[in-house]
Specification:
Blueprint lengths: L7 H4 L1 E2 L2 H4 L5 H7 L24 H11 L4 E5 L2 H12 L5 E5 L4 H9 L3 E5 L12 H14 L5 E5 L11 H10 L4 E4 L18 E5 H4 L8 E5 L1 H7 L21 H16 L3 H17 L3 E2 L9 E5 L1 H9 L6 H8 L2 E2 L8 E5 L5 H17 L3
Parallel strand pairs: 1-11, 3-4, 3-5, 5-6, 6-7
Antiparallel strand pairs: 2-8, 7-8, 9-10, 10-12
Bound molecules: pyridoxal-5'-phosphate.
The site of pyridoxal-5'-phosphate has 14 residues, from helix 5.
Length: 376
């Protein structure tokens, strides 16, 4: 099998939003090397993954609960499984839930698997695509009117993966509380990058993505946190195998991903304190690129490292360029930058997460240089 060596993080500046928060630390890589074998975290199994002390998974999960401002946490195979677990545990097929219009496809797929009807809170549309928390009130009213009861669940994408908008979760949570609807906060693009305190944000459940935002490698891993109030319902155990949590089918991720998440955790706890710097870097790049005709969509000023850009100028260059729509990919790669999908010129996403200022300046220079050398 010819699998090429991957050197994106070592040899390039990677701006792929999917990957910048899941880039592992050297310590993480060293630690997981001895855990790449199957069932590696089961050497000292005590019957369930979340109770394991060697390596200290139980202790880690307790600490994560505090870190996220919640009470109980379980590992999952990813953010999407965390969402499905909540839906499966507290709804019945045919129930209606409310979801923001910028939600990730996996929210809809999870709802479909759980047999749920989904009503969307639409975004304000182009160019900002803002989700107005008050929109939740309107849609909850619609559900009450149509079904006679409030929705069984509301899901909010704290930061969406298309425009990187940060929604006021606290306000959404207040509206949900007033209506007796629990709130599942999808933090795939927030927790692990920026400070998230679930109770302060009025969240009943938090779904997180280890491989997207907590510097976890070696596979897929997510987290599901909840409050004391919901703990029993969400983390109920099998009747016959009483140590096994039902919603993660007993144990979820069972190898290096679990260890990677734990090894990166001390770094993650520190890096969320530097969120201000991340936002500054993102804003700085947006300002520089807008000066040369590459415009940011989404809320302004930007409050997140992921930005959706739109550029008529780059598109016009591509039409004349020998490499056509692949020109931007090649020009950036020649300058040591990867992460924008090959073939895109007019609309693309970038993330500055964990780049230092020098690297962000370098990315800005690269775009300016490309535009200077390739007139439209
Ligand atoms: C990436 C992403 C997910 C999926 O996360 P997994 O951990 O891969 O399941 C869910 N929601 C949003 C908003 C995302 O950006």
């Amino acid at each position: 099998m010819n699998i090429p060596v991957r050197d994106r993080e070592e040899d390039y500046v990677n701006v792929n939003p999917l990957q910048t928060g899941g880039r592992t630390y050297p310590d993480t890589r060293k630690t997981i090397t001895s855990y790449v074998d199957g069932y590696s975290v089961c050497d000292w199994c005590v019957g369930a993954l979340d109770k394991t002390d060697k390596p200290p998974i139980q202790e880690f999960l307790a600490d994560v609960s505090k870190f996220l401002g919640m009470d109980h946490t379980l590992p999952t195979n990813g953010c999407r499984e965390s969402k499905y677990a909540v839906m499966h545990a507290i709804t019945k097929p045919g129930d209606t839930i409310v979801v923001d219009g910028n939600a990730h496809y996996s929210t809809f797929v999870a709802a479909e698997r759980a047999g749920l009807k989904v009503l969307k809170v639409p975004s304000g549309g182009a160019p900002k695509y803002l989700i107005d928390p008050e929109g939740y009130r309107n849609v909850i009213e619609v559900v009450k009117h149509d079904t006679g009861t409030p929705p069984k669940l509301a899901v909010l994408t704290h930061v969406d993966g298309s425009y990187g908008n940060v929604v006021d979760a606290k306000q959404v949570g207040e509206i949900c509380r007033e209506n007796g609807t629990p709130l599942l906060l999808n933090t795939a693009y927030s927790s692990g990058r920026m400070p998230v305190d679930g109770k302060k944000l009025n969240a009943d459940f938090i779904a997180a993505s280890g491989h997207k935002s907590w510097a976890a490698g070696g596979g897929n891993i997510g987290l599901l946190s909840t409050t004391e109030e919901w703990g029993e319902k969400i983390f109920s155990h099998s009747k016959d195998y009483t140590i096994k949590p039902l919603e993660i089918l007993g144990c979820s991720t069972r190898g290096s991903a679990m260890v990677a998440l734990m090894a990166s955790y001390p770094y993650v706890k520190e890096r969320v304190k530097e969120w201000g710097r991340e936002v500054e870097n993102s804003r700085w790049l947006v300002e520089k690129l807008e000066d040369v005709g590459i415009n940011a969509l989404g809320e302004k000023p930007r409050n997140h490292d992921l930005t959706f850009f739109n550029s008529q100028t780059l598109f016009e260059i591509s039409e004349k360029h020998q490499k056509k729509r692949y020109f931007l990919y090649h020009e950036l790669k020649n300058r040591g930058i990867l992460g924008i999908k090959s073939g895109l010129t007019k609309n693309f996403k970038m993330s500055t997460f964990r780049l230092n200022r020098q690297q962000v300046e370098y990315v800005a220079w690269a775009f300016e240089d490309i535009m200077e050398k390739n007139p439209k």
